[in-house]
Design goal:
Number of helices: 9
Low-confidence stretches: 1-19
Mean pLDDT: 94
CATH architecture of the largest domain: 2-Layer Sandwich
Distance between the termini: 44 Å
Helix content: 25-40%
Order of helices and strands: EEEHEHEHEHEHEHEHEEEEEEEHHE
Structural class: alpha/beta
Largest sheet: 9 strands, mixed
Number of strands: 17
CATH superfamily of the largest domain: Dihydrodipicolinate Reductase, domain 2
Strand content: 25-35%
CATH class of the largest domain: Alpha Beta
CATH topology of the largest domain: Dihydrodipicolinate Reductase, domain 2
Length: 383
């Protein structure tokens, strides 16, 4: 496998071991999610992916995890030094939202492929800068939407495509938990806020279930006076209008009981998912159609390994991933409009956006759940 080393504007290409057919990743950012879900996923993705470096702003955390995973570690100020390693073909960016664009662009300019957590960035301009940098430097960009590979959500997509609900009309969702602070999710300068952190799941789900883009949105944001939320909103309530009479509504909160559910209603049936967005635990579903009710569950699985495997395949085979950078931008522009609506207290219309690529059932991958490893200097975001 080869990639361009464009950080020095050189056209020389360097090749890693073709025999192994493995893409070497540097994981950038070692917070709770990276430690609990991303790093353990390399076990199931080892067929074409391997962890080769870690980057962190905390030297103690980096040293401990570097020893555990037997890989070199770097500080943020050493990022280019990390990218210069012959083993580093790609980066997985798991930094605070406000840092995604900077590190993605720096990686792309050094010739590294970029897998970036959602939201892709915190402005549409930043997303476009990331997309442009990756295109100009001949590297791939993928937005880390793990549910695009998850069984229950893809079966919901299949139910819509096969007309099992008739014509889908309504999407409703609730996603909430009690946020433990201090936490970057409640820090404005880190790109925090409930819409950025968990609202993005609801926006993305509505889009891939409706197979369409919203044309108008409206949002209320609530600051309750809770001392945890001095810089960002605690909760938000959203309505999105799609073409052909489709409506989506959702509520998200950092100050309520843990709930992760959505309901899709069509002219001939309805589908309800519980635990729909969670990274761990089974996802329960209920399908009601023609007076009959069916229930089932998708068992808990490793949701991060499919991202790594898919992205590595795209790198090795020279093809664009789904979800790509444009998929990340589509959600960022909607969330930006929702914040604009919350401030203006008016609906915001969206310019038409053409998206022909959507997640499909054949993207599903099944891997057993990973065990939660011993975590280093981090705490879970919720109690």
């Amino acid at each position: 496998m080869a990639r361009r080393r464009s950080g020095t504007r050189s056209t020389q290409r360097r090749t890693s071991s073709k025999a192994s057919r493995q893409v070497g990743y540097a994981v950038v950012g070692l917070g709770h999610f990276a430690q609990e879900s991303i790093l353990p996923a390399f076990t199931h993705a080892r067929g074409n992916s391997r962890l080769v470096a870690l980057v962190s702003g905390d030297p103690r955390k980096a040293r401990a995890l570097g020893t555990k995973y037997k890989v070199p570690v770097f500080g943020y100020e050493q990022f280019e030094e990390c990218l210069a390693l012959p083993e580093v073909d790609a980066v997985y960016i798991a930094l605070p939202n406000s840092m995604h664009a900077e590190y993605a662009v720096r990686a792309a300019r050094a010739g590294a492929h970029v897998l970036c957590e959602k939201p892709l960035a915190t402005t549409e301009d930043e997303c476009r800068e990331m997309i442009r940098a990756c295109a100009e430097n001949d590297v791939r960009l993928m937005t880390a939407y793990r549910l695009h590979f998850e069984q229950a959500n893809l079966q919901a997509v299949k139910a819509v495509r096969e007309g099992k609900l008739g014509e889908v009309k309504l999407f409703t969702s609730t996603f909430s938990f009690q946020l433990r602070t201090p936490n970057i999710r409640a820090e404005a300068d880190k790109g925090g806020g409930v819409l950025w952190d968990i609202g993005v799941y609801c926006v993305n789900a509505a889009r891939y279930l409706f197979r369409a883009e919203p044309i108008e949105v409206f949002a209320f944001c609530d600051w309750s006076g809770d001392p945890r939320f001095l810089e960002t909103e605690e909760a938000a309530s959203v309505v999105m209008r799609f073409p052909e009479g489709k409506l989506a509504a959702f509520n998200v909160s950092f100050g309520a009981e843990a709930v992760a559910t959505y309901r899709l209603v069509g002219t001939e049936g309805e589908l309800h998912l519980e635990n729909a967005y969670e990274v761990k635990g089974p996802i329960h579903w209920t399908l009601k159609r023609q007076g009959k009710t069916r229930r089932g569950k998708a068992p808990s699985r490793d949701q991060l390994a499919p991202e790594l495997i898919t992205f590595s395949d795209c790198i090795l085979e020279g093809r664009e991933p789904e979800p790509d950078g444009w998929e990340g931008l589509a959600d960022v522009r909607i969330i930006s409009a929702l914040y604009e609506s919350a401030v203006s207290r008016r609906p915001v219309q969206l310019e038409p956006l053409m998206r022909t690529r959507r997640p499909t059932p054949d993207q599903e991958q099944r891997h057993p759940p990973t065990r939660t490893p011993e975590l280093v200097l981090v705490q879970a975001p919720s109690h």
